[in-house]
Fold this protein.
Amino acid sequence: MRLVIIGGSDAGIAGALRARELDPSCDVTVVLDDAYPNFSICGIPYYLSGEVVDWSKLAHRTLEELSSYGIAIRMNTRALAIDRSRHQLLCRTPDGGSQEISWDRLIIATGATPVIPTIEGLSAGLQTDRVFLVHTIADARALMSALSSVQVTRALIIGAGYIGLELAEALTTRGVTVAQFEAREHLLATIDPTLAGQLEAELAIKGVELVTGTRVSSLTANDDVTVTLSRDLSTNTTTTTGDIAIVVAGVQPETDLAVAAGARLGHAGAIWVNRRMETGIDGIFAAGDCVITHHQLLGESYLPLGTTAHKQGRIAGAAAVGKTDEEFRGVVGTQVVKVFDQVVARTGLTELEASTAGFEPFTITTNADDHKRYYPGARTINIRLTGDVSTHRLLGIDMLGPTSAAVHKRIDVAATALQSGTSIEELIDLDLAYTPPLGTPWDALQIAATEWLQLVSQRQESISREVALG
């Protein structure tokens, strides 16, 4: 059986490995349009900061390792069209020619492409050595070349999402002054504004000039980069200048090949797939940042994350070789990012998302120590917990705390509870580890859950009294 996979990043390689694991006789070919198979895009900021010295170390597996698994990698080969009736994939080869590759099963793992915001002059600026996207290893190497060869003292970052924040830290670590612009009122739209505000304060302490609620309306790149800024629809504008500009305004699913082949789209314009990663077209599967994400609390959504892509790719690889009893169980939206000395994480739903999804949400904001106060170095974790009033089901948690506070592992506990349908009471009853240097008898999560129950009880009593009084 011939399995062809379009895309050599997380989902594509996970699918190839799983297919070969289940069916060693399967002929697996991975087609990718660059020379960087199975690289960690998430590691790019740490290469740019200098913490990872050699970009090649960002590879999950080397080309030799992939070949040893029996996977044929065709690099610098661009997939141009999918012929469903003939089971052929038309490609442009490295020498500029064309070639057809035969397939019995096909996995589309084309990933996502950067969002290019509507900014006057941006398209032309991207053709210079002053304005950069950071989405691929090639992008990262181009930016690193500029950082190494040009005197860069001030960088402009357009976008304050997860990658934008990691880049702000990376460049600051290199000694570059950073000015960062975000169109929304707060950074990280996926977390609570209160916690976002605390993270904004951390950026200010570290010297990052963050400007929120402000759009970049134009960009000019010559010997330096000048951007024009405006707030909302105001005609009042200001300008600022840097040596380079980096555009990280999010991503969108890459679906052109799939759509041309007849695949239908779902949420956010991503390829629709079922839980076996089937597209509805016989013999064609899809996985990764190009497809919809099944969210356990929201249903169909779009969450382009490396962790999700690995899982989806694995399911697609299994289904492609006939193992159809494996299904993608879905996600609960777990994310974490380190920004200088702080870590912010979230899982589940915000109060607005929960209300829109038909729950009856109630949210509290509180804080707790990461370990016993009498042991030196105790720090505060800020927590926002959302639960359903009628069922007491845990719906979502946002957390912010110092890097020493194990926020990332506490959010993992919350994610596990969410995927298990745990109630607030059951969260309190979890048998979690405790020792004074690392925790408290009641973990920070359990302290927040206890407070939630108390406030919900008080709220219900207040409502009952109002009803009794007429």
DSSP finds 13 helices and 25 strands in the chain.
